[in-house]
Write a sequence for this structure.
């Protein structure tokens, strides 16, 4: 059999990263462009075409099975990107269709967290699993839910928005979506920074974080301080882990996954975030699940994971 | 083609109802025994065998495709009933295996709410739907989740315990499962009675419910009073509907269903419970789902629904 290749494109708010992947999951070549340069989607696709063509020429277009795209607010059923707040194009963008026309290669699209879940199942920590939940902890909190070996897309293609379950029902923080108390308002990078502000305002303990003005503390600062053993920074991670663990217990109630897999910035905190998550998940689960549901970190290289995940969509076409 | 039949068995804490169903979903004959009579599971199965054999003889055992059973804590993967608090047999009961051996007919088993979901999809309000959630509001609160036309069983066969998501995180009521704040502690028949007690203690309004001692008020009393226009009884339904609606909004976030279908005692309250559910579900959903997710009542005859649902399992074998 001839070698076949897939293209994976990970569209983020800042950068669009793309690569050519072989069927063993090796990223053969990669490139990137800025997502925000072109206010006109067609010009963005033109630039993507120019850059990607250089990579495609090295393997031959006839050997490319398809293009998979992970994009914020991407809809698998329609191939559209809908009202994505962090992208320059407003309204409904028929992205998969535009790509298929421009490249002459079939293109499938899903949201970035679903793409990560497919990548994890195909190449990563979820290999061999049929039921798991991928949680992406980054600028926002996303999720990809896999049931019986398939991503859950739901009736309309938008299933798996677990960053927007209500984690704190009374007096919850305002979320970017306009509602209050969403998990994302606590467990995203911004959420951790907000927790830092709240906890720093109340604490009487000494902390490395006192060196930074309250409104300038980032999740990275909390991470650095916690790694150095800072007690207040650890407390901030404990609080974040508690909220995540409580929500995870509810997620288990829904789909009884074998594992919940963490991906993205916050997961770099390792045991500092894992331990409180597991503690509070276990405390909040029904007895039938106690000790049975794994919480794991993605084992895909972060730089490749999103591209791999998106490319895995192409193999499914 | 010869007529084929399936047997449906609905095992409740009090009664076990069974029937023979044809492939058009007609219940041809029915019977029942008491669930709690025999402390020995084998004697229970003996009695079931004696009673069911009378029905089986009328259509011929060779024409029976299979037996489907809906049972509390029933596990689809193993065919076992595990530690069901409301059944007389403790520990792990290999029910499907015991039935197959006794009857010489292949037997499949799932929990009662999953059976109801299958019944609804095969014969009821969810015909033609591929993504919906069945919520059973009875002595407890159960759920059956259907994604892409299949019941979600999860890694271990126990998925879909939505009565045990945490509806009230701070200061929630103790639930029968031993944890605090579960949806079931608010939306079950007992939950409604508890809400009645709480609200009656605080209210200064006149109410028909004042005629009943506080600790004797049942969900049926609340229903009767609300139907007569009693304002306090309506307030109790509003409160129950608010809790349900808030949880439903989170469920939508997970699987983006076409509909959430209500079954069981509380659903008889009609608009009294439906209106607050829809109001609070809409208020709590992300914009992308507002106005798009139906909340429906089961349209199966309650007396037949559980038997139909269980029998539908047999067709899937």
């Amino acid at each position: 059999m001839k070698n076949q290749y897939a293209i994976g494109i990970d569209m983020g708010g800042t950068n669009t990263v793309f690569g050519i992947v072989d069927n063993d999951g090796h990223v053969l070549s990669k490139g990137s462009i800025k997502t925000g340069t072109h206010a006109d989607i067609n010009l963005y696709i033109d630039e993507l075409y120019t850059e990607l063509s250089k990579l495609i020429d090295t393997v031959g277009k006839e050997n490319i099975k398809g293009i998979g795209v992970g994009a914020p607010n991407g809809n698998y059923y329609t191939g559209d990107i809908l009202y994505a707040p962090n992208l320059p194009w407003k309204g409904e963008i028929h992205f998969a269709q535009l790509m298929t026309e421009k490249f002459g290669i079939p293109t499938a699209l899903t949201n970035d967290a679903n793409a990560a879940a497919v990548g994890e199942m195909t190449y990563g920590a979820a290999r061999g699993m049929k039921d798991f939940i991928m949680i992406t902890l980054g600028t926002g909190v996303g999720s990809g839910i896999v049931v019986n070996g398939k991503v859950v897309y739901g009736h309309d293609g938008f299933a798996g928005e677990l960053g927007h379950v209500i984690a704190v029902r009374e007096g919850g923080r305002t979320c970017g979506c306009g509602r209050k108390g969403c998990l994302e308002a606590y467990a995203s990078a911004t959420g951790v920074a907000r927790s830092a502000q709240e906890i720093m305002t109340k604490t009487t303990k000494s902390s490395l974080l006192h060196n930074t003005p309250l409104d300038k503390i980032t999740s990275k600062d909390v991470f650095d301080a916690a790694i150095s053993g800072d007690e207040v920074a650890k407390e901030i991670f404990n609080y974040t882990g508690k909220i995540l663990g409580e929500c995870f217990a509810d997620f288990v109630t829904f789909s009884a996954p074998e594992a919940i897999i963490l991906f993205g910035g916050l997961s770099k905190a390792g045991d500092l975030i894992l331990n409180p998550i597991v503690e509070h998940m276990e405390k909040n689960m029904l007895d039938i699940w106690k000790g049975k549901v794994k919480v794991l970190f993605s084992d895909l290289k972060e730089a490749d994971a999103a591209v791999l995940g998106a490319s895995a969509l192409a193999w499914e076409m």
About this structure: The domain at 128-298 of chain B is CATH 3.30.420.40 (Nucleotidyltransferase; domain 5).
